[in-house]
């Protein structure tokens, strides 16, 4: 293909794609009917639908079955799921939790909200995800847990991280917010560590209506701890009531202070229908991603599908594309912006996900202006500096070289061809001559 710089849409030329990309059609008549059934029932009986009832229970059971067995607690968001999963571990304040540098704010903020210290591990070179060397470099005698996130639906290379954790007796939390249905060495993500968190807001692979989340574990003790942590410390899973302070207080049995982060039956009813579609959604996403990757091999010298570890079966919340800037006359970001300007949903900057450099983290803004938990005298930071910063050079580098193609399972041949054509056009104009 021949193309000139001035013919690029970013410089006022015609766009490759002028029509909007198709919407997802995530919710259909079945979800509507499931929600209406609850309203109909409430109207007929004069009752209400609530939380922890038959729909939420069935959703949790079906969610666990989809992961091959275990226990699920539905909560009200993915951020809450991360919070509850960590809280279930009953960590002491000021303990350090190794976490990803690249993640959603809701995947890291729960750590200081629990009074613990987030220690962002750099990304593995060429990936958004943490790698074992980067995690190991963050471990200290104060480390109490390792939190990983399968960003973009690409599984983290778990085996060496689980080995590190096992050797030190550390629990591993998997943040699967972006990775429903992804597998690693044949096993679903979320079943690899001790406890996992999922987001089921309406942008995710499957959704429990507008917002939602799930805590999943195969450890019954952590399940009950999660239930207590997500519902104001009610004594779920404990035999006998908590000792009452006085006979007057004998009705109060709450055993820990905790938020109300519960899911609910309406979300469960919608989520059950959605869950039945998840396998198909993931299968179709994989098929679209495979066609894009194959197309890139033919049409591009510059853009490739992002590297993934052996044994990874991604579920592609988005598709990470790597741009080889050495083959371009411009920076990779300028290339990505030019592709986006052709009408393609390519996010030219995932910098918003770099929590190690986010204002809230750098300025330690969690509890007023106290800088707690970092400023607490009880916190003795590894290396002696509670104010240390985390350069995370691999994370910065991958954010400058890799870009997110926001596709979905409804993409057909035209969308795939347009995305490839835009890349080919921009590359013809901005690629180095060979
Ligand atoms: C990796 C990760 N963790 C946590 C969250 C928070 O989930 P929610 O938006 O449902 O609170 C998200 C949201 O996209 C996420 O991508």
Describe the structure in your own words.
- This protein is of the alpha/beta class and 434 residues long.
- It has a domain at 29-243 and 250-276: 3-Layer(aba) Sandwich (Aspartate Aminotransferase, domain 2), CATH 3.40.640.10.
- It is built from twelve helices and 14 strands.
- It has a seven-stranded mixed β-sheet with strand order 1-9-8-5-4-2-3, sandwiched between helices. A four-stranded antiparallel β-sheet has the order 10-12-14-13.
- The radius of gyration is 23 Å and the shape is globular.
- The two termini are 14 Å apart.
- The site of pyridoxal-5'-phosphate has 15 residues, from α3.
Overview in brief:
With 434 residues, this protein is α/β, with parallel strands linked by helices. It has helices at residues 29-45, 54-66, 78-87, 110-113, 132-136, 158-168, 220-230, 265-299, 332-341, 359-362, 393-401, 413-430; strands spanning 71-75, 96-100, 117-121, 143-149, 172-175, 183-184, 187-188, 195-199, 213-217, 303-305, 312-313, 319-323, 346-347, 402-405. It has a seven-stranded mixed beta sheet with strand order 1-9-8-5-4-2-3, with helices on both faces.
Major sheet: order of its strands? 1-9-8-5-4-2-3
Q: Which spans have pLDDT < 50 for at least 5 consecutive residues?
A: none
Global morphology:
globular
CATH-defined superfamily of one domain: Type I PLP-dependent aspartate aminotransferase-like (Major domain)
Named at the architecture level, the CATH assignment of one domain is 3-Layer(aba) Sandwich
Small-molecule binders here are: pyridoxal-5'-phosphate
Whole-number mean pLDDT? 95
What's the multimeric state?
single chain
Helical region count?
12
Q: For the report, how would you describe the main beta sheet?
A: 7 strands, mixed
- CATH class descriptor of one domain: Alpha Beta
Distance between the termini: 14 Å
What share of the residues does DSSP label as strand, in percent?
Answer: 5-15%
